[in-house]
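Question (not urgent): is this output format expected?
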Amino acid sequence: MRRLISLAVVVWVTMLATRGVAADAAAPWGAERKSTVLASGMTMGYVELGDSSKPVLVFLHGFTNSSLGYLPLGRLLAVRYHVFLLDQRGHGATDKPECCYTRLDYAHDAKLFLDKMGIARAHVAGHSLGGMVAQTFAAFWPERVDKLMVIGSTIGRRSLPSPDSPPYPPTFGPLDAEIRALKDPIDPDSVFMKAWWEVPGLDPQIQYHMRRESARIPAHLWRAMLDQGEVSRDLRSTAKKITAPTLLLFGGKDALFNAADNKELMVWLPHAKVVTLAELGHSLPEQDPPAVAAELLRFLQ
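Got this back:
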């Protein structure tokens, strides 16, 4: 029976994705985005989808992405949930301060957003950087989280065994050096930006617009988010505070967070449900929104 229900969810989501193509093409890019001012004074951009009478689901995007990059996934989830896709600080239509960009700063912004919207509890999902922020939110404000979904993310890097240990390898491999070499104005059609947004299966129009969106992030903030994020990237210290039912969703071909990273996350969140989509890479929510939506909806039902 459970297999039949799961199959029905997959078929249903696929049908919705097919129907949504024409609707997506009709709306101007970014038309869904709104903004609000948080109690901290920060202006936060967001997209709101679905009926306000339904349970709330908050989604947190990855590094240099934004709410708009997850619209195809958000629309599928909005059939059953009241979805908020947030622009995290430094991204999209949200303010871009000089400081600070640790996981707790991002998570506190999400908490203030829920406060502003009058949302007592929500399902919280996050991809990559957003997955780290979602874990942090669930650890510090467990009373605000119904279910937690961590997608293509990590528990963070292990502590260096000694002061003489060699530095960690670059977070983004060879692209780390290119991030540090970025200069304003960033060319959205540069070789670097095309490589950064090379996601198999991602709609070329979304790639086009997202390159431009991330190119509007000042070069020094790319570096600030990378460096300040490293300060708090080890999430093991707070993992035991997470009490919400949790889904860990991995891409089997993720080149950023590999099988060893996945295993470490599973060790520290031992009660989580684990699903691997074998043919997908790191950007699985953008690469195959119907497959990811089906897994999230299956977990939430």
